[in-house]
Amino acid sequence: MAIQPATAEDPWPVSVLGTKIRDYIDRLGTVWVEGEITQWGQSGGNVYGKLKDVDQDATVSFTIWSSVRAKLPQNLKQGDRVVALVKANYWVKGGSLTMQVMQMKHVGLGDLLERLERLRRALAAEGLFDPARKKRLPFLPGVIGLITGKDSDAEKDVLRNAQLRWPAVAFRVRHAAVQGERTVGEVVAAIEALDADPEAEVIIIARGGGDFQNLLGFSDERVVRAAAAAHTPIVSAIGHEADRPLLDDVADLRASTPTDAAKRVVPDVGEELAGVAQARSRLSGRLAQFIGAEISRIEQIRSRPALAFGDRIVTERSEEITRFVARGAELIDRRIERAESSLVDLTARLRTLSPQQTLARGYAIVQGADGAVIRGVADAPEGVTLRVSLADGAVRATSTGPE
Predict the structure, then answer these.
(1) Which range (129-133, 265-269, 359-363) has the least confidence?
(2) Would you state the CATH architecture of domain 14-107?
(3) How many CB atoms lie within 10 A of CB 160?
(4) pTM (2 decimals)?
(5) Which among 26, 79, 93, 189 has the fewest CB atoms less than 10 Å away?
(6) Digit-coded pLDDT (tens) for 61-71
(7) CA–CA separation, 229 vs 195, rounded Å?
(8) Is the dihedral of CA 242, 247, 252, 256 positive or negative?
(9) How far is residue 132 from each of residues 136, 195, 210, 252, 256, measured CA to CA in Å?
(10) C-beta of residue 218 within 8 angstroms of C-beta of residue 198
(11) What is the spatial order of strands in the sheet that 365-367 belongs to?
């Protein structure tokens, strides 16, 4: 008989609702699902646990009856990544929904590697693994950020080896889960916290190796992107050589082990002091060599005659100057003598041509009243006053006319 739709006046009994939910869920049948075991508890031979989605925040409860448990692998445990054949089961009496596991097995390693390789290629195409993006580590970091498991061997190795190499080094330690469902969230939060710390100059993410599936958290895309976005240099020290996690590819430096990370991040004080001593020794040797060469060169310059016998140059130049002065005086005297002889000759010639000499021989110059020279009888008619210039003076006369 068909059941009428429920109304406020004619509601369904709870059993009817539960039965309908059970019948609807039963139609789903069995399905294969993949996830990570986040809870695994045994009671009376049965197993009660939870399976979490590997990418999203989604969880379902499951039950494995003892009859099924005996057929499953014995090494199943919390943190494993598995595929399971489940059947949804709604318990009408308790009003609860559980997933009854029919089969369960670990995810094949080949499947995981294929997924990781696809993610690796996608991130590489974005340039997250480009060597040009990698940041240089500081030579001597004052404060080192360390992300690792609490009280882990990795933490002890990093701290011990770093302090042996440089006792003054300081650490900011952030403990995080290094396997299991909490790994991704806690590691990402630790990276962001240390990257925001202004004193942390480099961040080491350390784990002491382990099973491949236990390292999957360090290949999670969220962890990889958090490391790529950090402004502080990241050192990956997961300690897993084969099938290494994607964090190794995006990190600014990959260390093979936590001990190797400490050695590569912190310089050895003994080696550095030895290096400084060697550098000082080489510098002193080069400086002594340079000074010795310069002293030798100065000695060579000082041994040259020009510097060894400086007064010789003055003496030689003094004698040369004396000769030049004597030669100059001689040339000047000769020049003066020739000039005087020429002056006497010119004076004699000038005197010979001078009108004064003509007057001295008894000649006179006759001028009229206007000063014009009388050159003929016609220029001196009778009664004209004349001026007669003689060798030693002049006299006045009156013309009596021509004779």
Answers:
(1) 359-363
(2) Beta Barrel (2.40)
(3) 13
(4) 0.52
(5) 93
(6) 999 999 999 88
(7) 9
(8) negative
(9) 10, 20, 30, 10, 21
(10) no
(11) 365-367, 385-390, 393-398
